[in-house]
Write a structure and sequence with these properties.
alpha+beta, five-stranded mixed sheet, two-stranded antiparallel ribbon, 7 strands
Length: 157
């Protein structure tokens, strides 16, 4: 039996000096306004993985009003969800994510992000796809107000 999940997350920018995406710190003149580290990529992935198992969403497992998760490294969320997947008898076949932003340019960071996510998830790097696109300066992403990420995964027994 196979299960498909999708996830979507958005974080606005605030003052700062870096962004964390896929567990990798990327130098930038802004940071994410968020309760945890704001890793919008991992958050979308977590929602996709939870969705594939019909286990709710990231907010149910890691409520943003719980101080336990304040400034938390989002890789903790991803590791927890990977344990849930194993507990349910599934494994990740692949996961594919698209980062939507105008800045920073993501291409120089994509391989490092993929390698780090594969390590966190105990997968081969060829099971983890991360791409980036712009909105041609349209919408909140196009105006440089934040970043969105879409993610989809396939789980198998």
């Amino acid at each position: 039996m196979m299960r498909i999940g999708s996830g979507y997350d958005v974080h606005a920018f605030c003052e700062g000096d870096h962004l964390t995406l896929g567990g990798i710190k990327i130098p930038f003149n802004k940071s994410f306004a968020a309760h945890s580290d704001g890793d919008v990529l991992i958050h979308a992935m977590v929602d996709a993985l939870l969705g594939a198992l019909a286990l709710g969403d990231i907010g149910q497992h890691f409520p943003p009003n719980d101080d336990k998760w304040k400034n938390c490294d989002s890789s903790v969320f991803l590791k927890h969800v990977m344990e849930l997947i194993k507990k349910e008898g599934y494994q990740v076949s692949n996961i594919d994510s698209t980062i939507i932003c105008e800045q920073p340019k993501m291409q120089p960071h994509i391989l490092a992000i993929r390698e780090n996510l594969a390590k966190i998830m105990d997968l081969n790097v060829n099971q983890v796809s991360v791409k980036a696109t712009t909105t041609e300066k349209l919408g909140f992403c196009g105006r440089g107000e934040g970043i969105a990420v879409e993610s989809v995964c396939l789980l198998g027994l």
